[in-house]
Amino acid sequence: MSDDTRDLAPAGAEDHELGREPSSAPTVLPDTATSRRSARGVRTRRRLSSRVRTAAAIGLLVLVALAAGGVGYYSWWSANTRPLVDVAAGQSVTIVIPKGATTAEIGQLLAENGIVANPRQFRTRVRDAGAGQDLLAGTYDLRTGMGYDAAIASLTAGPSILRTKVTIPEGFTVEQTAARFEKAAGIPADEFLALAKGRASEFAADHPYLAKAYAGSLEGYLFPKTYQVKQGATARDVIDMMLDQFDREIAGVNMQTAASRGLDLGKVVVLASLIERETKVAKERPLVASVIYNRLKLGMRLGVDATVEYVLHTNRLRLTYKDLQVDSPYNTYEHFGLPPGPIANPGLASLKAAAAPADTNYLYYVLTAKDGSHTFAATAAEFERAKAKSKEVFGE
């Protein structure tokens, strides 16, 4: 059967579908021309319906695409304009741009410190300004919220402040620290020592623990680190900077174990200074700490060579019997307990070891290897064997 015939329902079909009885009138065949017009009408309606459905589908796809584009644009806009941090504008910030830093790295550094809002936008501004090769390394004093153009102008003009890099190693004494700053940054050592060895109370307002510093000395609290020293900085400026760094570092040290054993911050710093001078092997620091804690608990003299060396201003492989008899409250061969003050400026690892020693029964340690390693012992017999081994390695 053709489509035309199938689409032409017999007369009366509509009545039957509406629930009425079919007419009893005789069936009349439709006129052929009329049938063709009806068929064309149906096909036309079908084509229109198909076009409507196609148009609707296209419209839906367009809407989806627009929505996706909107989401994509928002993501792009957010990534390229949204501030990286939320800080108040107008605050002074010192930034060091390393040599060889890329524009992306510089933008990230500036955005993390709130100098510009967004690192990607900074890159875009630098590229548009053609300044990618003109950003200069160095130390800058900038302001938060100063904006892209001002930041680019500052970095292309060059460092605003000349600074000198000074590295203070872990375990340096106050005297060694003063000498290093004088040599590297021109800060007179005598001015530094005048403050650091007797006038700790002048810094106690900002650092309350210094009110109890032994003999007014800052020994133990001048944190060892690499510092950027401004041209024209004074001894007091440098000491303030080092004490501030100590505060930041010690804030991350858990003092609960030390406190449970009766050690306050001052004693922890003293103990850490002994550890710093006694071993340079990182894994040994908690072990050395355990020996000191165990000896303190048993009421034994500590017998730490480094305390005698501090008094004698020396650093020998072996101390003589005469050396061990030096008259000083720092001499832990003659006096019980910890020395009255630190003997050096300890680093973070030694501070952590002093605050949380290893759990051992060791009472002795002896240098037995040329790499600086020690043998630890719990008994006198083990101690004697370790000493014999040390003599084999280093001689009498």
Strand order of the largest sheet: 1-2
Number of strands: 6
Average pLDDT value?
84
- In terms of DSSP E residues, the strand content is 5-15%
Count of helices? 15
Main beta sheet strand tally, sense and closure: 2 strands, antiparallel
Shape: elongated
Distance N to C terminus: 120 Å
Q: Please tell me how large the radius of gyration is.
A: 41 Å
Low-pLDDT windows of residues: 1-29
Q: So what's the oligomer here? A: single chain
- Which H/E pattern describes the elements? HHHEHHEHEHHEHHHHHHEEH
Secondary structure: helix percent: 40-55%
Count of individual domains: 3
Structural category is mainly alpha
Report on the structure:
The protein has a two-stranded antiparallel ribbon with strand order 1-2. Strand 5 and strand 6 form a beta hairpin. The protein folds into three domains: 92-157, Dna Ligase, domain 1 (2-Layer Sandwich), CATH 3.30.1490.480; 163-250, 2-Layer Sandwich (Dna Ligase, domain 1), CATH 3.30.1490; 263-394, no CATH class. With 396 residues, it is mainly alpha-helical. The protein is 48% helix and 8% strand. The protein has helices at residues 3-7, 13-17, 32-81, 103-112, 119-129, 148-157, 174-185, 189-196, 235-250, 256-260, 265-278, 285-298, 305-312, 348-355, 380-394; strands spanning 92-97, 138-143, 163-167, 226-230, 364-367, 374-377.
